[in-house]
Amino acid sequence: MITALLPIFFAILLLGLPIFAALAFAVILSIQFFGNTDPVIVPMRMFSGMNNFSLMAIPFFILAAELMRIGGLSDRLIDLAKALVGWVPGGLAAATVLSCLFFGSISGSSPATVVAIGSIMFPALVAAGYDKRFAIGVIATAGTLGPIVPPSIALIIYGSVTGTSVGRLFAAGLLPAILIASILIAYCIVYSSFKGYGRSTFPSLREIGSAFKAAAWGLGLPVILLGGIYSGVFTPTESAAVACIYGLFVGMVVYRKIDVKNLLSTLNSAGLMSASLLLITAGASAFSWLLAITGAPTQLASEVLSWTEDPIQVMALFNVVMIIAGFFLDSASAIIVLSPLLQPIAAQVGVDSTHFGVITLINFSVGMITPPVGLNLFVAMAISKMTLPEVFKACLPLIGLMLLSLVIITYVPWISTYLPDLIYR
User: Sorting pLDDT into bands at 50, 70 and 90, what band is 400?
Assistant: First the structure.
């Protein structure tokens, strides 16, 4: 069955079916023609894959992000980012990266971050004289910070399939996200210095304070969520519901950007996004179940460890595998299918599950800016009116920086484990 599973899956994908259908049908056909189990079990496994308390957080976080996006937060976060880093060479590009980091801490989603920040910053960057390719490359790549900085939808999925504490995973993502943002900002400064792009004047303390005050309600959301989780006031799933109430209050009462009409539209779009993600989760759950019952994880572990037990070599191999998988699978599917296979092997060579979760997420974040299924590329195409090859070429130098960050985070586990160990010791 396993020999047939992957060829069937890729054949169905080539026919143009959605990923969740390709995953589910690959399992059904493999069982039907090569197994001795009744295929009726597949829908049952799909439902049980979604019947997970941790996954309840996903629709709430998606809705919270949408509420904050339409509630006028994007403009305020961008103004704050400009006040903080707009004075460096290429300050507008650096502010774009910082804005994505700020918004990612609210949305937890890569495409949502690209839409919210890119739709505002791309026209501003082009109007300021920045090259279109450089501008869209920075936006598409910085959008990958969305799932890495906590709270993160992808980390919730990883925690649910590996049994890793979601609270520890949220803490683990913060320093790696700051590291990646710092590397991208450094690139913006160096590139802009060579190109002679301008910068804004150094802001006064009053201007910085004013920008902080305007964005304070938005920045307060991750503080409340993470503070509530780490203090034990509520679980990550409960924190997602709190985020929705907070986002609705800020958008309707404080910023007064949300009315009944766009609230209904937001509920509709958040529902569709949530349904799409949970369908993928269901299909991937059935896929990973078939891998598990056939003993594929054990066989894979034996094969890998027969080659080498050196953690450096094992993690290098896993990074290559996950990057290639990210070319063809969206993050949710890839996490659900590969994490139960690879995480136990990583644990055997001494890699902490929390650390491995961050590594996994960064690998699949690279997949968000690589064809053929990189969602950030398609969102960036819509924003910039550029072709897929043009957007991908624009991202290539920054993909190299993402891979550099991946290597650093892989082999310096302290970056991922320091905060979780500090909070949960």
Answer: very high
Please give the average per-residue pLDDT across 224-246, as a whole number: 81
Q: How far apart are CA 143 and CA 402, in angstroms?
A: 12
Please determine, for residue 72, whether its predicted confidence score (pLDDT) is greater than 70.
Answer: yes
Stretch 31-46: mean pLDDT, rounded? Answer: 83
Sign of torsion over alpha carbons 82, 86, 92, 96: negative
How many residues does this entry show for the chain? Answer: 425
Q: Are 284 and 23 in contact (CB under 8 A)?
A: yes
Q: How far apart are CA 339 and CA 322, in angstroms?
A: 10
What phi and psi values does residue 383 have, to the nearest 5 degrees? -70, -40
Spatial distance between the Cα atoms of 323 and 363, rounded to a whole number of angstroms: 5
Token pair 């739709």 in the structure block, residue: 119
Residue 412, helix vs strand vs coil? coil
pTM exceeding the 0.70 threshold for the entire prediction: yes
* Residues 342/76, Cβ–Cβ less than 8 Å: no
- Average per-residue pLDDT in the chain? 85
- Name the one residue in this structure whose structure tokens are 């650390």: 355
Cβ atoms within 10 Å, residue 323 = 19
Count CB neighbours of 78 within 10 A: 26
Residue with tokens 């961050």: 358
Q: How far apart are CA 301 and CA 406, in angstroms?
A: 23
Q: Is 16 helix (H, G, I), strand (E, B) or coil?
A: coil
Say how far apart CA 70 and CA 107 lie, in whole Å: 12
Amino acid at 335: I
Cα 375 from Cα 388, distance rounded (Å): 11
- Collect all residues with Cβ–Cβ distance below 8 Å to 413 and sequence separation of at least 6: 351, 352, 355
**Digit-coded pLDDT (tens) for 95-134:** 999 999 988 887 777 887 888 888 888 998 998 899 999 9
| Residue 175: C-alpha distances to residues 171, 181, 394 (Å) | 8, 10, 26
- Residues 242, 331, 395, 312, Cα dihedral to 10°: 110
pLDDT in tens, 286-329: 887 887 777 766 676 677 777 878 889 999 999 998 988 888 77
- Cα gap 381→416, rounded to integer Å: 33
